[in-house]
Write a structure and sequence with these properties.
Largest sheet: 3 strands, parallel
Strand content: 15-25%
Radius of gyration: 11 Å
Structural class: alpha/beta
Length: 73
């Protein structure tokens, strides 16, 4: 099954690696470079999977997960 995935990672090389691998596996991937951007993307679209870094500037990954959970339990 192909999933719609949001990758929230502030490290560019890590984010690019995750996006490349997930895309190669056939998933549709949306990127966010920090927590606030991830929350905006979560509000704009529905995702099957969220992959997030815990330590990001602006908003940490736990807050991103809480936002995802509240918008789409």
């Amino acid at each position: 099954m192909n999933a719609n995935v949001l990758v929230a990672e502030d490290d560019d090389s890590q984010r690019e690696l995750l996006v490349r691998r997930l895309t190669a596996a056939g998933h549709v991937v949306t990127e966010a470079a920090d927590g606030p951007e991830a929350v905006v993307r979560l509000a704009a679209a529905q995702f099957d999977v969220l992959v997030t870094d815990l330590w990001m500037p602006g908003q940490n990954g736990l807050l991103v997960v809480a936002s995802a959970k509240s918008s789409s339990p």
